[in-house]
């Protein structure tokens, strides 16, 4: 599968779930509702800039903090197709896989990709092409188990299929 | 092969003799806890996928806590939905208003947590229950839906880091200071994906309440779980509360750890984590050299430090004193039973006489929900576990994390203050 879109780069480590979707909005759980407030406490302009198919690029430990899956839903609802980060917090990473949403681990991602760069991601081969700078990066492809869940459209469908 | 306590519990729960770090397993879940924020989406998913069933209603505990008593109509709708769902599935253990409390405080208090079991909840601080020698970890709503309907969940067996904590804690220094010190040392991703195993003479000397403060914050170092081997203190606590049979697992002496870190806490100072990461810990000596940090609000509560022992420590410090002018203090006993006990012991009177207010149990302002939200530019010193940007309110408010003693001393002085001079 090939994904293509623009990068929104945050050169920051430990971007946490309170920044991705503040708790004051956790009395809602629909993607479209949450999307309006995605990344609000980190970047109020994000939701105005983001286009369907875009990517977020960030430093280490992206998604740390709360277990709220609302963080994944807010990003997906805003149009984001994948997050590329140096590393991910555990629960956020699980939540991404379980939702069939791509969390791509790439060392020094936020140093090697500039804001608004055009990227092309090949999920199967684990390649990111930076169409703006013509650089190419390899990331560790997802384990088969994760790919199976993503392909099934999330954990619950996967469980149903494998019963 | 030698194994850690975590590996042994996980192996047992996937019917294997042994498991190795990195291995993907499907583990049986003994206890699923559900709170208001993450459960409604799980119910939606189950209904949508026509798998709306509960594997065993006796293994599910429901504890609405984040936005209760309902803070607005949307929150009220969420709790109503969960109430109806629990009724439909004959889940009888439902801590509704009047018996309510912060989920991670109520679960052990009411005897649901025993050693050796696996526990999941749609809440990152589920690592708390590792204090009882259980494997306990936070999950999202999809995982919650899967665990509720199948009683199983996939896990990658984590590597373990061993923290050996020795020495007598000095006066005015508590388990909160130990965990803030550890997180400051290893960073908010220092234990990413790993089990944090705490051992040593200091840990053995701590009460279950104080141990839970430590395992509660394993997630603030990125940990998958925190765990402490059960001992007499654990068994005494558990046996007072339940007749459930349990099995105790212990790490083999030559079990493998990705790292072992040893601490002598006999000279540890009170620590305060500065905004906006729990790893920004500074010692009182460092703070004493800085300009005064004025506090608008002092917050005593949460799954980290809202237990009876925490309230006793705080009450002892503020007793007979008056809160600083311009500072407000909010005391939130973590559960209904803690509230009643604190009332019986006269602690609530002490807080009220001091000039604090006492609220009903709730996660409330800890996560910026309700009951003590900060305005733009305000500063709070808090016994909670996170001080991320906007955590307790406005994105331009600031949260400092500390022990109940440090929070109380700061309420007396109206600025971040050293508790040691107030502790008898």
Would you summarize the structure shown here?
The complex is a heterodimer of chains A (163) and B (424). Chain A is of the alpha/beta class and 163 residues long.
Give the key terms:
heterodimer; A: 163 residues; alpha/beta; Aconitase, domain 4; 20% strand; globular; B: 424 residues; Aconitase, domain 3; 2 domains; five-stranded parallel beta sheet; 17% strand
General shape of chain A: globular
Query: Based on the structure given, which CATH architecture of the largest domain in chain B is correct?
Result: 2-Layer Sandwich
The helix/strand class of chain A is alpha/beta
Strand composition percent of chain B: 15-25%
Main sheet overview of chain A: 7 strands, mixed
Q: What is the topological layout?
A:
The complex is a heterodimer of chains A (163) and B (424).
Chain A: E1 2-10, H1 17-20, H2 31-35, H3 46-49, E2 55-58, H4 70-77, E3 82-85, H5 90-98, E4 102-105, H6 109-112, E5 118-122, E6 127-130, E7 136-138, H7 144-152, H8 155-161
Chain B: H1 5-13, E1 24-28, E2 31-34, H2 36-48, E3 60-62, H3 73-88, H4 103-109, E4 118-121, E5 135-138, H5 141-150, E6 152-156, E7 160-166, H6 175-186, E8 195-199, H7 201-205, H8 208-216, E9 225-228, H9 232-239, E10 259-264, E11 271-273, E12 281-283, H10 284-288, E13 297-300, H11 302-305, H12 308-318, E14 328-331, H13 336-344, H14 347-354, E15 357-358, E16 379-382, E17 398-401, H15 404-413
Parallel strand pairs in B: 2-3, 2-4, 4-5, 7-8, 7-10, 8-9, 13-14, 13-16, 14-15, 16-17
Antiparallel strand pairs in B: 1-6, 11-12
Helix pairs in contact in B: 2-3, 2-5, 6-8, 12-14, 12-15
Structure, explained:
The complex is a heterodimer of chains A (163) and B (424). Chain A has 163 residues and is α/β, with parallel strands linked by helices. Chain A has a single domain, classed as Alpha-Beta Barrel (Aconitase, domain 4), CATH 3.20.19.10. Helix content of chain A is 31%, strand content 20%. Chain A has helices spanning 17-20, 31-35, 46-49, 70-77, 90-98, 109-112, 144-152, 155-161, and strands at 2-10, 55-58, 82-85, 102-105, 118-122, 127-130, 136-138. In chain A, strands 4-3-2-1-5-6-7 form a 7-stranded mixed β-sheet. In chain A, helix 7 (144-152) packs across helix 8 (155-161). The two termini of chain A are 26 Å apart. In chain A, 51% of the residues are buried. Chain B is an alpha/beta fold. Chain B folds into 2 domains: 5-263, Aconitase, domain 3; 271-421, Aconitase, domain 3, CATH 3.30.499.10. In chain B, 32% of the residues lie in helices and 17% in strands. Chain B has 15 helices and 17 strands. In chain B, the strands form 5 sheets. In chain B, strands 15-14-13-16-17 form a 5-stranded parallel β-sheet, with helices on one face. Chain B has a 4-stranded parallel β-sheet with strand order 3-2-4-5. The termini of chain B are far apart. The chains are: A alpha/beta (163), B alpha/beta (424).
